[in-house]
Design a protein that fits this description.
The complex is a heterodimer of chains A (245) and B (265).
Chain A lengths: L5 E12 L2 E12 L3 E5 L6 H8 L7 E6 L2 E2 L10 E4 L11 H10 L10 H8 L14 H13 L5 E5 L7 H16 L3 E5 L3 H7 L2 E6 L2 E7 H5 L5 H8 L3 H5 L1
Parallel strand pairs in A: 3-8, 3-9, 6-7, 7-8
Antiparallel strand pairs in A: 1-2, 1-4, 4-5, 9-10
Helix pairs in contact in A: 3-4
Chain B lengths: L1 H9 L2 H18 L15 H5 L4 H12 L3 H20 L2 H5 L5 H34 L15 H32 L3 H19 L5 H4 L22 H25 L5
Classes of the chains: A alpha/beta (245), B mainly alpha (265).
């Protein structure tokens, strides 16, 4: 049986913000049907790497590809990608529905998107979807942003801290939705600090530390002889947390 | 994308209030003169003095009053918001992954800015004509110290003056738009754009600074008034050229800013 296709590929990605080297020669792959967790301490370069993977940031060196196509700002291949990055963001004086409509039609497509009903079910905003977003709680904004990512029924998902602000029931619903999408062949890359959650969801993980790749592979291999992903993660991030404590 | 810009900016309470202010000035200016239609406005000269003679007179007097400050402030407000609001809200990154290319984004923003500028100028003219029609009625365009204009002459000159003012406001919009792209926050861009208009107006009033004033677009904004002056119009071509040059220069600068800025930086 042939190996699943590589959908997300980072090859030697590097990004420097002034004197700070945020990402240093980062290479990894995520294949079709995998749920890959991008892990690392705060400032390890997870969000910077994700920005480069969706074209929001130009790498100083290296390439980011999705489905074999190098990604740049506004690249057509991004039509296949559902994105949540740097937190939710909306036009505050418009309703949830109007925001979804604008974000969808900005890509030059006719309303409604193919996965709208399913995405709205997951968001579970009910009548609030018709209210102005500026009155939304943090959790509601996060759910609406997830709906924006899912409504296009993408076959690639790049989600930065998708469970932020969600309650336990919502986290479970999100986990099930991502598992379903993955089972249907979607490729999922998520960043998270919630290791217990990651352990329940991810099939693979990429661990960053100080902008560099610390480890990558199937989750079972990474956990190895450790009691949990948390123990393995702390061992891989070379005492960062000990120093922080 | 144009729909995105129009929906988020034009159909917005702040924008509607700004446009209502533009419309309110000609109405407010007509009310005190309601008792003297067809008579000179006190000792005023020029368009202000002839304002109560006809709807067209009142519309052009309103434009003369608003074109130096209030109209450019509203135009700057709209242009800065169109340039920067999506970045201020954080929505810009989600537009890029929609995906929208830089070229489409800039084209939509420029089209929305031009449309917003046109709407602002039209609101002033429509409000001036509407208030003038109700209060003073339709009569031949009166020029103090000269024969009234025929309908054809008046129509041509009103259209020329409106077109020229639109060109001037497009230059203002281009300046504000570029500042909106350049500066981190839309509010900063608006403050600097308004400051520019105020400082340029002050420089324009200083004879010693004529050489500086002559290279600024603000210097030429009121040149259209000469179309209604018995002494004749100054050279509108030079003013139009300066406005066009400003618009092209600022639009090019805006493109370079958008092209070279890393949206995540």
């Amino acid at each position: 049986m042939p190996a699943p296709t590589v959908t997300i590929q980072a090859e030697g990605l590097a990004k420097r913000y002034r004197r700070h080297l945020a990402v240093d020669r980062l290479s990894f792959q995520v294949r079709e049907g995998e749920i890959c967790a991008l892990l690392g301490p705060n400032g390890a370069g997870k969000t910077s790497a994700m920005r480069m993977l969706v074209g929001l940031s130009t790498p100083d060196s290296g390439t980011a590809s999705i489905a074999g196509t190098p990604v740049r700002l506004g690249a057509p291949v991004l039509r296949r990608v559902g994105v949540l990055i740097d937190g939710p963001a909306f036009v505050p004086h418009l309703s949830g529905t109007a925001n979804l409509r604008l974000l969808w039609s900005a890509g030059g497509r006719a309303w409604p998107p193919p996965g709208l009903d399913e995405a709205l079910d997951l968001a579970g905003l009910g009548a609030a979807i018709g209210r102005r977003v500026k009155g939304y709680s943090m959790g509601m904004r996060q759910r609406l942003m997830l709906a924006a990512a899912f409504m296009r029924r993408p076959d690639v998902l790049v989600l930065d801290e998708p469970a932020n602000g969600l309650d336990p029931a919502e986290v479970r619903a999100l986990r099930r939705h991502l598992a379903d999408r993955s089972a249907a062949g979607a490729t999922v890359l998520i960043s998270s600090h919630q290791l217990a959650e990651v352990q329940q969801l991810a099939t693979h993980a990429v661990v960053l530390n100080h902008g560099r790749l610390a480890a990558a592979g199937p989750l079972g291999d990474l956990v190895g002889a450790h009691a949990s992903l948390e123990d393995a993660y702390l061992a891989m991030t070379d005492g960062y947390h000990d120093a922080a404590l | 994308m144009l729909r995105f810009e129009l929906t988020t900016q034009l159909v917005r309470v702040r924008t509607l209030i700004a446009l209502a202010c533009l419309a309110g000035v000609p109405v407010a200016a007509a009310i005190p003169l309601a008792a003297q239609p067809g008579q000179r406005n006190g000792n005023e000269s020029g368009l202000f003095g002839a304002s109560p003679y006809s709807a067209a007179n009142h519309a052009m007097a309103s434009l003369e009053f608003m074109a130096p400050l209030l109209l450019p402030i509203v135009v700057a407000l709209l242009a800065c918001a169109i340039a920067s609001a999506d970045r201020d809200w954080g929505v810009l990154r989600y537009l890029y992954v929609a995906p929208v290319t830089r070229e489409r984004l800039l084209a939509a923003k420029l089209a929305a800015t031009a449309l917003a500028t046109l709407i602002a100028v039209v609101v002033v003219m429509v409000a001036g004509f509407a208030a003038g029609t109700v209060v003073f009625g339709w009569h031949p365009f009166h020029i103090i110290g000269a024969a009234p204009l025929t309908t054809g002459e008046a129509t041509g000159r009103v259209l020329a003056a409106t077109g020229y003012t639109l060109l001037c406001m497009l230059a203002m919009a281009a300046i504000a738009f570029t500042l909106g792209l350049l500066l981190p926050r839309g509010a900063e861009a608006l403050a600097i754009a308004v400051g520019f208009v105020v400082v340029a107006s002050i420089i324009n009033g200083q004879h010693a600074l004529h050489a500086v004033a002559a290279v600024l677009p603000v210097h030429y904004w009121q040149n259209w008034i000469g179309l209604f002056d018995p002494a004749g119009a100054p050279d509108l071509a030079l003013g139009a050229g300066v406005q066009l040059a400003t618009t092209v220069l600022c639009t090019t600068a805006g493109w370079l800013i958008l092209r070279h800025r890393d949206p995540a930086a």
